[in-house]
Design a protein that fits this description.
The protein is α/β, with parallel strands linked by helices. The chain is about 40% helix and about 15% strand. The protein has a single domain, classed as Flavodoxin domain (Rossmann fold, 3-Layer(aba) Sandwich).
Length: about 200
Amino acid sequence: MSFDHPPRILFLYGSLRERSYSRLLAEEAARIIGDLGAETRFFDPRGLPLHGAEPATHPKVQELRELVAWSEGQVWSSPEMHGNISGLIKTQIDWIPLEIGSIRPTQGKTLAVMQVSGGSQSFNAVNSLRILGRWMRMFTIPNQSSVAKAYQEFDEEGQMKDSPFRDRLIDVMEELHKFTLLLRDKVEYLTDRYSERAKP
């Protein structure tokens, strides 16, 4: 297991509201995993066009793709909107291609999924994010965070209050940190596929 550099973790969040709880949850998670030794970066989705509305040369698309290439692991945090993920988080994921030339930018990267809800606890958004992570060939960790009545869980400064929800968030970030380190030197071996080696 290589410790030659801190795990590089990219955070994506799914709301542009001034007090976005999916962003606040992501920021809390970043503080936690940063304390564990990870290097963290955020993508600000403001100005990102809908997929297909602009060419992939758009500056925000290029910024997102550069951050994805930089990352070893990612955290996707979405509000639950109408029983599913928000359009904003889906737009970000849609702009991440399965291939850029011969490089698969998400294959073998670790992923943690999180959601916030305005009402009772739900797992619809994290379940959808898991499907997308699998499609993107990412190693989605077993643990996840789903915060119910998120408006009650953060103080005026945007810090998460002590609660079982925060305890679970710590568990998720510890697990992501461990999996990212454990898989770092094994990604090429684990993602090597017969169907891709075989020649007609």
